[in-house]
Amino acid sequence: MTSDALSIPSELESALRLRTVQYFITKRPWLDLYGVHVRPVPPFGSTSRKPHYDPALIHRCLPDELLFEVFARMMPYDLGRAACVCRKWRYTVRNPVFWRNACLKAWQTAGVIENYKILQSNYDGSWRKMWLLRSRVRTDGLYVSRNTYIRAGITEWKITNPVHIVCYFRYIRFYPSGRFLYKNSSQKLKDVAKYMNFKASKSDSLYRGTYTLSMSDDKIEAAVLYPGTRPTVLRIRLRLRGTAIGANNRMDLLSLVTSGVNDEEISSTEEDILGVVEGWEDDETHNPDIPAVSHKRGMTPFVFVPFEEVEQSVLNLPPEKMDYYVTG
């Protein structure tokens, strides 16, 4: 037999080698799906006329019109959570109608025309982009500032130099109308949140004030009136910031000043006390019996707590455990 009879063609040799390799390579059929385009579910109001079958039970039982009405009644942050459920919900949530209503409500003090001008000039006509990037105060919860100070105690038994750590909170609840509620208290967050509204009684020691938000530097000017025989106004300057885009969940306390006002100034403008003290200097007072005082203590930043997280917040813990969670 000649050597030519034993030679194997090159095409057959490559085929035999490929067949041998298949025994050592694990088959992965899902690799065949790479690069295959899956057509997304058309959102509500789409102009596409192609019929589509959605296997999800909730999408087959709930019409798009009802889904739209449900989303229209949800808070913006709840819409963000709903967008993580599935692709159809994500596309539906991107409907500009939802974000237009949220923006016009959040910045209602600026007016509709001014909001439309800002939309076109700064945010390319996108209401959702405006909601994420434009600074705003959150109204779906409370801003809380926890402060502590040391107070000397009374000598008892073998304890010669006792000290006490006193813990108190500053609570602020903003409203889109330009008003807010303010309270200083040692009560826990879950107890204060129950009556932090305009229907609270005078015994709850809630004080009403007005505020303005500057769009240029994210600063808040606020004022609260302490009524009584010697009326005093509390002027607050805050800087708004966030731990993520669109969060707006932190506020730095820049200054805290108390000043005296006379009866003529507050007789007709009690609801707009900020307009009375606007432009005042830090050491300015209109009552010689009440000097202006700039407070340097209790300047801890504010942390935002949504209403649905009030009961589980670490701010309800005792001071010693709270320090562990904050610093740990």
Description:
This protein is an alpha+beta fold and 328 residues long. 28% of the residues lie in helices and 23% in strands. The protein is built from twelve helices and nine strands. It is extended and about 110 Å long. The N and C termini lie far apart (85 Å). Component of the SCF-type E3 ligase complex.
Strand content: 15-25%
Question: Poorly predicted ranges (pLDDT <50, ≥5 residues)?
Answer: 324-328
The neighbouring-strand order within the major sheet is 1-2-3-4-5-6-7-9
N-to-C SSE string, H for helix and E for strand = HHHHHHHHEEEHEEEEHHEEH
Report the strand count.
9
Q: Which short descriptors sum up this protein?
A:
F-box protein, 9 strands, 8-stranded antiparallel beta barrel, alpha+beta, extended, Hrt3/FBXO9_C, disordered C terminus, F-box_dom, 328 residues
Write the layout of secondary structure elements.
Layout: H1 10-21, H2 57-61, H3 64-72, H4 76-82, H5 87-93, H6 96-106, H7 112-122, H8 127-133, E1 141-152, E2 163-174, E3 179-185, H9 189-192, E4 207-213, E5 219-226, E6 232-241, E7 250-260, H10 263-267, H11 273-277, E8 293-294, E9 302-306, H12 319-327
Antiparallel strand pairs: 1-2, 1-9, 2-3, 3-4, 4-5, 5-6, 6-7, 7-8, 7-9
GO biological process, one term: protein ubiquitination
InterPro entries: F-box_dom (IPR001810), Hrt3/FBXO9_C (IPR045464)
Subunit structure: Component of the SCF-type E3 ligase complex.
